[in-house]
Automatic annotation (TrEMBL):
This is Glycerate kinase. It holds the Pfam family Gly_kinase. It is an enzyme of class 2 (transferase). Its EC number is 2.7.1.31. The keyword Transferase applies. Belongs to the glycerate kinase type-1 family. InterPro entries: Glyc_kinase_flavodox-like_fold, Glycerate_kinase, Glycerate_kinase_RE-like, Glycerate_kinase_sf. GO terms for molecular function: glycerate kinase activity. Keywords: Kinase, Transferase. It comes from Streptomyces zagrosensis.
Length: 390
């Protein structure tokens, strides 16, 4: 296989140590499984190569898994799922630092197959998960958001942490984004006092505002089963929610509605910014710090990154782009693996990726490609060894 520069084996013999820092292949393999298959393929073709893996995530699905692989302790609790039923959800803890992934409690994966609840799905369980981390002694929380089943602006999360969100008759509003249309009063004075002494980083790969054409309902609502009418209702309800919070906490609430990350995960980013005092940071940057990527990078001659689909979204805060940027800053060459490749060589090069290896080049049928992703990755890894290691 040719490298991006058109030469085979351009760095032959120069690579002694490989760092695998890939995200999950959604629907096929976890980040840990991706690393395992790549390692097997590399070692089959180049037995003497040193291989280290740091499975990565960008704040969405798989963030807790990545932290656990890096040595954090996984803790599982029962919380309220997006439909109101109890679900098991995990967070990761190391000392006083916790990694909390909202998808564990309020994600699409907690819904039965084919079931959506765009107007009523709640983030209440995410608030319970955050409270469990506080109870365990966390005073620094990386709050990964993505993969949500919800569009409630984090209202459920805030309620679980002590906020009072009331209708015109002084009763708690119902669950979900649709119920925000009934919100008349927001009282955040009852929020868990430990939050004021906890550093919370909102880790997300999206920078959408709360509402409008690029807001949470319009962009992500359809993925959660929202019809055009639902999107319009949710957008109006979230705008009303922001107005009520502005009356409760002041002008900052209106500014946060337009802030990067406010629209993340159905607007839970907004709830975290306004109610939890969170600070937004691109998820992959946060996770690379948490996972100990820098010292592993210092030991590497070549980095392999990747995810299920390398496309335009990859260039806007996804894990492979973050890994490539960090590696390029330290002069370490990067190649990528993916199921599907939709980026031209020029775009890859500008992102710091020398070459990308797509599984569909080996198995064009999408269903078979996903089903056989593991063995295909091992074949790709053997090709990378031939191009760069032997």
């Amino acid at each position: 296989m040719l490298s991006a520069s058109g030469r085979t084996g351009a760095t032959a013999g120069a690579v002694a140590s490989v760092l695998i820092a890939a995200d999950k292949f959604k629907g096929s393999l976890t980040a840990v499984q991706v690393a395992d298959h790549l390692t097997a393929g590399l070692r089959s073709a180049a037995p003497g190569v040193r291989v280290e893996s740091v499975p990565v995530a960008d704040g969405g699905d798989g963030t807790v898994d990545a932290a656990a692989e890096a040595g954090f302790e996984r803790r599982t609790v029962r919380v309220t799922g997006p439909l109101g039923d109890p679900v098991a959800a995990s967070y990761a803890l190391c000392g006083t630092t916790a990694v909390v992934e909202m998808a564990e409690a309020s994600g699409l994966r907690q819904l039965p197959a084919g079931v959506f609840a765009p107007l009523t799905a709640t983030t209440y369980g995410t608030g319970e998960l955050l409270r469990a981390a506080l109870d365990a002694g966390a005073r620094t929380i990386v709050f990964g958001v993505g993969g949500s089943a919800t569009t409630d602006g984090g209202a459920g999360m805030l309620a679980a942490l002590g906020a009072r969100l009331l209708d015109a008759r002084g009763r708690p509003i119902g669950p979900g984004g649709g119920a925000l249309r009934d919100l008349a009063e927001a009282d955040l004075s009852g929020l868990d006092k430990r939050l004021t002494h906890t550093a919370i980083t909102l880790a997300s790969d999206v920078d959408n505002p709360l509402t409008g054409p690029t807001g949470a309902p319009a962009v992500y609502g359809p993925q959660k089963g929202a019809s055009a009418a639902d999107v319009a209702a949710l957008d109006a309800a979230l705008a009303h929610y922001a107005d009520v919070l502005e009356r409760a906490v002041g002008p900052s609430a209106a500014a946060y509605a337009q802030a990067p990350g406010a629209g993340a995960a159905g607007g839970i980013g907004y709830g975290a910014l306004v109610g939890l005092g969170a600070h937004f940071r691109p998820g992959i940057e946060v996770m690379l710090d948490v996972l100990g990527f820098a010292p592993a990078l210092a030991r590497a001659d070549l980095v392999i990154t990747g995810e299920g689909s390398l496309d335009e979204q990859t260039l806007h805060g996804k894990a492979p782009a973050g890994v490539a940027a960090a590696a390029r800053a330290h002069g370490v060459e990067v190649v990528a693996v993916c199921g599907r490749l939709a980026l031209a060589p020029g775009a890859l090069g500008r992102a710091g990726i020398r070459h990308a290896y797509a599984l569909t080049a080996l198995e064009p049928d999408p269903a078979r490609c996903m089903a056989e992703a593991g063995p295909l990755l091992e074949r790709v890894a053997a090709q990378i060894a031939a191009d760069f290691l032997t």
